[in-house]
């Protein structure tokens, strides 16, 4: 068998390292300016920790907003712990980096999306990673009170699939 470089998994590792570094900076210095994050993660991931009522309400995935109020941000090697407010009820969460599906900072139109692979996929080592230049949607802006502009903008997605050999 011929050895090959697994660029997809290397890219996922680099993107997770970027998220970790951003969160480490936020843990040390707080969120600068208008920065805030929408983080979508797999609530059924075996290492994700969240209240039963949250996992019942969001059995597949959940998007959390890290903006005005958060507490106890503890960034580790494999994931991060944070306490967020859900309807005036503070809830601790633990989110492993490999459970993250999207990480978006709409204040600077930046986003990462981790594509999920079907287990029956015939492409070995394909992670479907995409880098996204994201413009926030009006719904996302309303949810975070991030902007007064309700004009939807298109996202520019660069798929790594276009660089793969077939």
Which terms would index this structure?
disordered C terminus; single chain; globular; six-stranded antiparallel β-sheet; alpha+beta
| Mean pLDDT over all positions | 77
Strand content: 25-35%
Contiguous uncertain segments of 5+ residues:
118-166
Helix content: 10-25%
**What is the terminal-to-terminal distance?**
17 Å
Shape: globular
Strand tally is: 9
Tally of helical runs: 3
Order of helices and strands: HEHEEEEEEEHE
Q: Could you characterize the architecture of this molecule?
A:
This protein starts with 6 loop residues before the first helix and ends in a 7-residue tail after the last strand. The protein is built from 3 helices and 9 strands. The protein has 166 residues and is an alpha+beta fold. A 6-stranded antiparallel beta sheet has the order 2-1-6-7-8-9, with no helix packed on it. The protein has a 3-stranded antiparallel beta sheet with strand order 3-4-5, with helices on one face. Helices cover 22% and strands 30% of the residues.
């Amino acid at each position: 068998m011929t050895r090959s470089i697994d660029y997809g998994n290397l890219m996922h590792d680099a993107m997770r390292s970027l998220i970790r570094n951003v969160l480490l900076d936020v843990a040390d210095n707080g969120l600068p300016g208008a920065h805030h994050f929408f983080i979508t993660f797999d609530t059924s991931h075996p290492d994700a920790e969240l209240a039963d009522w949250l996992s019942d309400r969001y059995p597949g995935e959940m998007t959390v907003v890290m903006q005005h109020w958060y507490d106890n941000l503890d960034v580790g090697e494999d994931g991060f712990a944070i306490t967020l407010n859900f309807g005036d009820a503070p809830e601790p969460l633990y989110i492993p980096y490999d459970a993250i599906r999207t990480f978006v900072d709409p204040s600077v139109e930046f986003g990462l999306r981790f594509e999920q692979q079907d287990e029956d996929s015939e492409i070995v080592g394909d992670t479907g990673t995409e880098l996204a230049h994201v413009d926030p949607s009006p719904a996302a802006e309303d949810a975070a009170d991030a902007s007064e502009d309700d004009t939807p903008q298109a996202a520019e997605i660069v798929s790594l699939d276009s660089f793969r050999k077939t």
